Amino acid sequence: MRSLICLGTSDAFGSAGRHCAGYLLDTGQGRILIDAGPGLLTALKAQGRDTASIDAVVLSHLHGDHFAGVPFLLLEYTYETPRTRPLIVVGPPDTERRVFEAYYALYSEAREHELPFEVRFVEVGDGDATEVADARLESFRVPHQEKQVSLGHRFRFGGKTVVYSGDTAWTPDLLRQSSGADLFLCECSTFDTKVPKHVRYVEIEENRSRFECDRLVLTHLGREVRARSSEIAEELANDGLEIPL
After folding, report:
1. What is the pLDDT of residues 208-242, one digit of tens each?
2. Exposed/middle/buried for residue 82 (C-beta within 10 Å: 0-12, 13-18, 19+)
3. 187, 183, 116: which is closest to 156 by C-alpha?
4. How many C-beta neighbours within 10 Å does residue 84 have?
């Protein structure tokens, strides 16, 4: 069944005891992991998800709360659930170097052994499009980092469109990028406190009538958003939430 499953919906601080960013997109033909926070493997197993079913990983940017779970997937596929088919990892420029840098920092002895399966890295930027696990992936840059590239992603499959903002400051371009989407998964780190390079709920509410997506779900939620959830009209993501598509 086509769906998006929330594995981790917190900000970088594990607010309200939720896992950091991770979403499992089932296109009906393949399974794509969107972002992989450090607790990703635990989240998958806590929900009884089959780790071997993941065809590809798509990263929005290279902050630890969004990609530090990838080394643990490599470990899982080497020892616990041996993998033979290739793993596709799509992300912004420098993804391959950063993933292996993190892997070897955590498990230095891994340098001495080749992985028993192939990892195919596809590095993308603003305006790039590629095919991933039977979905068309269209990437767009968002204002979250000054020098490194942060991306939002649009997934098109089976007549459906899912858009993920990644981490970003508020920009009217989110309205354009999410227009016509069946689901827009948008970051919302605080309620009204200004935090550099992140979206506040008040900014979403001010622009709510301008969104043209079928379903808007807020995620990457900090403690302020959780504490004031009764004041929020929009749907909030939670670990374990499954959204049919």
Report:
1. 999 999 999 999 999 999 999 999 999 999 999 99
2. exposed
3. 183
4. 8
Q: How many CA atoms lie within 13 A of 173 on its CB side?
A: 14
pLDDT at 73: 98
CA distances from 108 to 22, 101, 104, 224 (A): 25, 10, 5, 38
Structure tokens, 191: 């309620």
The two structure tokens encoding residue 112: 């001495």
Report how far residue 15's alpha carbon sits from residue 226's, in angstroms, rounded to the nearest whole number: 8
pTM of the model: 0.97
Helix locations, the chain, DSSP H: 40-46, 64-67, 70-75, 95-106, 173-178, 201-206, 223-227
Find out whether 15 and 226 touch, Cβ atoms under 8 Å: yes
